[in-house]
């Protein structure tokens, strides 16, 4: 079956590939999926979608991560879905759980207040563990360390269009390091002091700030205040060597020491986004209109008519989140001069 599959595949657009093989050029890349055993049904749906729309032609590997062992049911139900390599890993204890040096009384008071204020996941410790892990640790996992590029997938997401090109190779060829499909405002109540720490960090370490950075997307007063715009990190395609590099490492360690992952409820989305905006040039950040993507309750549907048609999209372009009042897409367009 693999020979017929290869023969019917369209080469990625813009490629001079004449053999019809989509994978004569591959990136050193993997999918990364953080999940609980109870997420199995949603994980199956997500993998079915990405296999159907992209990966049956490309066969990039999958790494599933969990703070406890995946059970046999989880492993079996995932493994039957793909002929790509699949690995299941346990997260090292210190990469997941609340560190000892966090003042638990202060953390608890923060959680109780947020619960009272009805902030989503406000009372949850495990959600905080997850956000800190995604901010600073997933790219250090032994199973992930061998890869440079990753595509983050969550249980219960949807891919609405054929992806007829290799986004990893595209990023490598075009000097991109971080890609998104949806951008929106963060809840201020989850990150009340984050920006003040970001500012303190940039004063201490001006050497890490990129020329031609994307700070102007997030702040219109030269960095004094934050407009809460961030890239929605449940979808990410990015270069882990960027997260592993000196600028982001110093940034994450600085933020982690402030304790805000536990005293407040800092999300990996604003932390990654602010890191990308400060330490990358704005042209290294890629918006993929081509990738139709849904994570409840929002969908990005390609706005380019030819893409929508040629990629057999199942989403309604009129209901794309891009120009919803809560989206930051128009700010991104304006910032990028579009
Ligand atoms: P939301 O998208 O912000 O509503 O948060 P999710 O509940 O979707 O969690 C984000 C990601 O982390 C998903 O891939 C979840 O499966 C995963 N996740 C969340 N909490 C835990 C947890 O306690 N353990 C593990 N192993 N994964 C988790
Ligand atoms: Mn989610």
TrEMBL record:
Keywords of this entry: Membrane, Transferase, Transmembrane, Transmembrane helix
Q: Does the keyword DNA damage apply?
A: no
Which stretches are tagged as biased composition: Low complexity?
1-20
State the residue spans of region: Disordered: 1-20
Q: Which family does it belong to?
A: Belongs to the glycosyltransferase 15 family.
The name on file for this protein is Glycosyltransferase family 15 protein
**Span within the parent record:** 71 to 408 of 408
């Amino acid at each position: 079956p693999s020979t017929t599959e290869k023969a019917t595949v369209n080469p990625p657009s813009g490629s001079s590939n004449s053999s019809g093989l989509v994978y004569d050029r591959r990136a050193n890349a993997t999918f990364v999926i953080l999940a609980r055993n109870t997420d199995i049904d949603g994980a199956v749906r997500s993998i079915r979608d990405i296999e159907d729309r992209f990966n049956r032609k490309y066969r990039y590997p999958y790494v599933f991560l969990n703070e406890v062992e995946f059970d046999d049911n989880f492993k079996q139900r995932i493994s039957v879905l793909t002929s790509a390599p699949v690995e299941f890993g346990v997260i090292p204890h210190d990469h997941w759980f609340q560190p000892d040096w966090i003042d638990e009384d202060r953390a608890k008071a923060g959680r109780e207040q947020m619960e009272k204020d009805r902030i989503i996941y406000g009372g949850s410790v495990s959600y905080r563990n997850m956000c800190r892990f995604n901010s600073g640790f997933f790219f250090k996992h032994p199973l992930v360390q061998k890869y440079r590029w990753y595509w983050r997938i969550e249980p219960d997401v949807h891919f609405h269009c054929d992806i007829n090109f290799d986004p990893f190779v595209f990023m490598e060829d075009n000097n991109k390091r971080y890609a998104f499909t949806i951008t929106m405002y963060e809840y201020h109540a989850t990150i009340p002091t984050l920006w003040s720490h970001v500012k303190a960090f940039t004063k201490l370490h001006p050497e890490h700030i990129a020329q031609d950075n994307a700070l102007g997307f997030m702040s219109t007063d030269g960095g004094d205040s934050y407009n809460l715009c961030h890239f929605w990190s449940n979808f990410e395609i990015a270069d882990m060597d960027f997260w592993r590099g000196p600028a982001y490492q110093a940034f994450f360690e600085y933020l982690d020491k402030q304790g805000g992952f536990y005293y407040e409820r800092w999300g990996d989305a604003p932390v990654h986004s602010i890191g990308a905006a400060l330490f990358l040039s704005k042209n290294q950040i890629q918006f993929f209109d081509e990738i139709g993507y849904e994570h409840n309750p929002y969908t990005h549907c390609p706005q380019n008519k030819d893409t929508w048609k040629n990629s057999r999209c199942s989403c309604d372009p009129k209901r794309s989140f891009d120009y919803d009042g809560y989206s930051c897409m128009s700010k991104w367009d304006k910032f990028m001069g579009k």
